[in-house]
Amino acid sequence: MTRQSLLVGCAAGFSGDRTDVALPVVRTLARRGLPACLIFETLAERTLALAQLARRGNPEAGYEPLLEPMLAPILAECLAGGIRIVSNFGAANPLGAAKRIRTLARQQGLKSPRIAILAGDDLSGARHRPLLERELGSRLQGVDIVAANAYLGAEPIAAALRAGAEIVVCGRVADPSLVVGPAMAHYDIAADDWMRLGRATMAGHLLECGAQVTGGYFADPGIKDVPGLENVGFPIAEIREDGSCIVGKAEGTGGCVTERTVKEQLLYEVHDPAAYLTPDVTADISEAELRVDGSDRIELIGVRGHARPDRLKVTVCHEGGWLGEGEISYAGAGAELRARLAGEVLRKRLEGLHLRIDLIGTVSLFADDAGRMVRDRAPGDARDVRLRIAAAHGDRAEAERLGREVNALYTCGPAGGGGVRTSVRQRLDTLSCYVPREAVDARFEMLE
Amino acid sequence: MKTVSLRTLAHGRTGDKGNRCNISVIALDARHYPLLVDQVTEERVAALFAHRRPASVKRYLLPKLHAMNFVLDEVLDGGVNGSLNLDTHGKALAFLLLDLPVNIPGGKR
How confident is the model over B22-38, as a mean pLDDT? Predict the structure, then answer.
């Protein structure tokens, strides 16, 4: 029996993505009338640690701060149209997020949705410390853990959907698993059907960064032009029974889906193309091909899959001291020389701090923390240069001292400096390791 | 023979995981792919990133996509959490690679 294709739309590629993009995706899904699912991917590596810090301050917090503005415009239409919602916007507090969604539904006069919560990813508790110590050894000594999470896979998401969940709220899961879960549930894909899991995983990979596959993060005027970038549409994949997919985008939006946009996203954050590792499968795009299937529709074929890794990845976030930054601008004749002189002054004043010095407008992003590129470049005659210095230190007072020295350049530094900005921020650092699957109790629970 | 910037023949995007960076290089025109494979080598990319002291530079070929994927280890000064760079992810680095000079047969583009 051939089943109807599954549509999966994506309405966020990171925490902080646009909140007005979901509605066109949902409207397109509803109009096409196929079984459909909407994902929001909001959890970069550090985002979860920031969420844990928020939860320390307020036990009700710790989930995606934009949860309400993301969901409020589309919740009613999703529930009415049978469009399931799957997201990692639960972050450090999936239960808190689920309760907030239930309240939102009540406020909108909707019947209470069936909400599932994924659990088991959070390994930050004391009882998991021995497990992490076994894998990380001395690297964990003296480390104040802010967050420790295993990357869960698609199986508990699929189980929650099979049990009738209309919304699945996850914490840390592998990003593509947000798409693989619905595909597994829809097509009854077995957990060792590597070929189909590999293909669905790459469909998820194409969707997980939102507009990065539909013309976002792509435009290079004159070489790669994108229509209507200010209204770039978010992607929708039509996933077929064999796991292969056609990627398109929401109707009535800007952006574009072309072989070029899809190739850039297909290789994004990929290392060995024959071994893209997730908790679900080892996906292999070494023989992958694209075909144009009409306007703004690209078909991905030739993806393969191999057995999944034995272990699950765990990311541990811990406090990493303080980052001090300061900037000041110089313009007009001799600007670069004056900016360089200011940098030398700061280096002498801030002895003991390892300073990074950027000459924004001349050399900055391509340079290195050791300062080789800045040093090797002959002083030029740039006429609008912003000096930036940065340093990290375990002691907050040292990071603050950096800002005061930049500020003092107003009266004590070279001529004509202006526009000082300084900041001090807490840093987070990460460690990662791999733990046996059995050590992680991945499961779902329905919100009562 | 004429020398042009790689950016006129290829496009690409940077990705990061920890202190490791990958940069795709994708032919804008499939006919230029063999030329890119010949000239955009691991050695030349390593030289371009020498100031970042890469521990290794590995190139993977994807001929069916007319693309290659470069993986550069230890070039992000510690990565998103450790680097003092404004661009801690190294997202701009694709455009450093796309500055690479490439020779093309004269007159043709």
Answer: 98
User: B94: Cβ–Cβ under 8 A, 6 or more apart, which residues?
Assistant: B12, B13, B14, B23, B24
Contact yes or no for A368 and B77 at CB 8 A: yes
List pLDDT tens digits, range B78-105. 888 889 999 999 999 999 999 999 999 9
Chain B residues with CB-CB distance to A372 below 8 A: 51
- In this prediction, residue B53 has a pLDDT band, given cuts at 50, 70 and 90, of very high
The Cα-based distances of A59 to A15, A93, A96, B5, B83 in angstroms read 20, 9, 9, 54, 31
**Beta strand ranges found along B45-100 (DSSP E):** 56-62, 67-73
ipTM: 0.97
A432 to chain B: which residues are within 8 Å by CB?
18
Residue B107 — very low, low, confident or very high, per pLDDT cuts 50/70/90?
low
Contact A323 B65 (CB under 8 A): no
CB under 8 Å to A365, separation ≥6 — which residues? B85, B86, B87, B92
User: Is A432 exposed, middle or buried (CB count within 10 Å of its CB: 0-12, 13-18, 19+)?
Assistant: middle
- Closest alpha carbon to B75 in B39, B38, B47: B47
8 Å CB contact between A201 and A300 = no
C-beta atoms of B13 and A268 within 8 A: yes
